[in-house]
From TrEMBL:
Residues 104-201 form the Fe2OG dioxygenase domain. One of its GO terms (molecular function) is catalytic activity, acting on DNA. This is Alkylated DNA repair dioxygenase AlkB. It comes from the Bacteria. Keywords: Dioxygenase, DNA damage, DNA repair, Iron, Magnesium, Metal-binding, Oxidoreductase.
Amino acid sequence: MDLFSNQIEPNQNLLPKDGVVNYFGPILNQPEADHYFHQLLDTIPWENDVLVMFGKRIETKRKVAWFGDKPFAYTYSNSTKRALYWTPELLELKQLTEKLTTTTYNSCLLNLYHSGEEGMGWHSDDEKELQPNGAIASLSFGAERQFVFKHKTTNEKVALVLDHGSLLVMKGETQNFWQHRLPPTKKVTSPRINLTFRTITTENLAE
Ligand SMILES: O=C(O)CCC(=O)C(=O)O
Ligand SMILES: [Fe+2]
């Protein structure tokens, strides 16, 4: 948290055009955010993510987990995952996020970055299973990390720092026009957990 956190304006659009990104700053106090961070770190069944790059199957160091209302199938970087049912803590966080963003979500992708050496490359969250132009709400816990948007045609960039216990929302046309990434950094040595609440279209129910 910084001295200026009381100036964070959740209604301000951080993007200059072609989408909407709102940063709410911390939405939990420090003990609450610490509680969720440790609870998620210890109890989520974290698994290595698998990417297919140049036809090769690569396991990421970053770990992931996938939860939802139903056992949705979700194909992400060529691997299909099935959603687990919400834990009580994830349901609490979903409820709080829904209240603050006045939107409902039916699933959540969780990422665990063990240190700053792990990040996520440029991408848009535009998988076919996701509701087109649906809001994506991102909760961060643990180490503060930079998050960057890049416009797909003009290359304009917008960067911000995602605080412990903070909420960020991407909505409207954001995923069509912008990519985002979590840059790796040697300056951060502690872990971070990120939760992205999403809406999956209900045709994507696993057998
Ligand atoms: O870790 C983050 O803040 C972002 C994760 C992300 O972009 C994703 O899961 O699609
Ligand atoms: Fe993303």
